[in-house]
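WARN  no MSA supplied for this record, continuing single-sequence
INFO  ligand: calcium ion
INFO  echoing inputs
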Amino acid sequence: MTPLDILIMAAGKGTRMKSRIPKVLQRLAGRPLLHHVLDQAAHLRARSAIVITGHGAMEVEAATAGLAGAAGTFDLKFVRQEPQLGTGHAVQQGVPHLPDDGMVVVLSGDVPLTRPETLRALVEACAGERLALLTVELADPMGYGRIVRGADGAVRGIVEHKDASEAQRSIREVYSGIMAVPARHLKPWLARLTNDNAQGEYYLTDIVAMAVADGLPVVAHRIQDALQVAGVNSPSQLAELERAHQLRQAQALMEQGVRLADPARFDLRDDARTGTRAALVCGQDVEIDVGCIFTGRVELGEGVSIGAHCCIANASIAAGAVIHPYTHIDGEKLGAHVGAGALVGPYARLRPGAQLGREVHIGNFVEVKNSMMADGAKANHLAYLGDASVGERVNYGAGSITANYDGANKHRTVIEADAHIGSNCVLVAPVTIGAGATVGGGSTITKDVPAGALGVARGRQVAIANWQRPAKQAKP
Ligand code: UD1
Ligand code: CA
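INFO  complex generated
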């Protein structure tokens, strides 16, 4: 098999994004556009990927350098193109890095949704000895390079929109910007490019006529699905491709049996903070209501139900658990776990290191951070558990909190099995509430409560009879 070298053009400015961020680093599903394109190098088992950078080159290179090892085994190189004199000029910059024995696949850093099987078909059409163009028929071909064919139907060349005659502009088959070409042929053609055209640019597309003149076969692999070759030039196009990508992911999940209330209101994204690739792993009979956002790696066990508008990142939720609407679960780097049969939300917040056992109940406005809750423990209303170990069947009352931070250090709170914490308590860590102990409502607990004891720490209630409230004084 002929080795593959991928060349990705990513030097353009992306003026219409109106952003400080280089266009190819704009995110689709939480992942920079360029990284989506580089995934192709891994899918195609390419030998190398050469990224042509220009605008924002330093940022693009910094954001991408670590990727090759993670994505596959290809060799990743960056080459600067300054100034940018056209697509032909861009590819010329890569020439010193393109061995003659390879096939070159030219991609654009702003075209993220090309299917691997489409590129594989293009590579097969090239077969190391033909010029293969990926083309698509568009209802509105405005702006694109047109595929000009001879009377026999064979491709004769590509003419750019701005250089095209009226007759050529009526051609609806356009060049996608993607081609596969043997390096040994590409190099001499690139050397012959001129910028004698309407835009004064070196057009890569001019090599097609050169191939025809040289008698090298030119083949077009024509696809119907315009999304696969759609580029991102504006926020509106980015949003359009985002929705298309999300719909693809939703369809794939539904094919596995996941029941999505509305595939158009589903999002699964990479976690840019931790660099975790998007992965939603679902058991059988998982149901997901509308408007949920999954980030990074999320595992949902058999029969899990996710209510509307939940945000869940880097977490695992075991079989039969129910996550009620508007719940926020973010495991970030530490992860978060919800045990089998647990009930969480609505409006609950699980933060990194939240580890809930089986049948734990977490109710509305309860926040859990870096805390372990053993099987059957409950915190049903308005509470905070931070840096705590909560035993089995503990009932943690409404409005109670762990004061885990003394302004300098964090301390742990231990609540042993079957303890009952009343409402509106402050457990000042480090502190231990023994097994089966009770803490009276409204207590501020600064000392350990022994097992089985009642700990109360609050002013005693007094009743002063016939209490006279202050009366308003007459003005002098
Ligand atoms: C190009 C094709 C056109 C095709 C269209 C598909 C040429 C001459 N024309 O046109 O036939 O229909 O793509 O989208 O190739 N870039 C660089 N350096 C440069 C110029 C461009 O890296 O000097 C990069 C851009 O950042 C972009 C890609 O190359 O990622 C394509 O450039 P663009 O200007 O969008 O090409 P088009 O004029 O749209
Ligand atoms: Ca373009």
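The mean pLDDT is 97.
INFO  checksum written, moving to next record
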